[in-house]
Design brief:
With 91 residues, the chain is an alpha+beta fold. It is built from three helices and four strands, in the order αβαββαβ. Strands 2-3-1-4 form a four-stranded antiparallel sheet, covered by helices on one side. It starts with a helix and ends with a strand.
Length: 91
């Protein structure tokens, strides 16, 4: 499944919501690698609220980001930017 196919349903759901701009919550799982964590966080603005939670074994990090997005296209574009970081799983 391609990236575009993967997010087609999400885009359609988000497009139906006419209350843009709004706060959107992104969730990612990544290996507990400080460089990769920093790369993910750098894709968001200074106004974004970012929470990290380490897995019980310490091998993975969950990153939750809340940021005001202007529209559905902006959400999908953010996922595209993050998809270029190796080892990141978007939830």
């Amino acid at each position: 499944m391609t990236f575009d196919e993967q997010f087609k349903n999400l885009y359609e759901k988000l497009s139906k919501d006419k209350n843009w701009p709004q706060v959107y919550m992104f969730k990612f799982i990544i290996t507990a690698d400080n460089k990769k964590i920093a790369q993910v966080e750098a894709k968001f603005s200074d106004e974004a609220i970012i929470h990290q939670k380490e897995s019980s074994g310490g091998k993975y990090m969950s990153i939750t980001v809340k940021e005001v997005m202007l529209n559905a296209e902006a959400v999908i574009e953010k996922y595209r930017e993050i998809s270029h970081i190796e080892g990141v799983m978007s939830l």
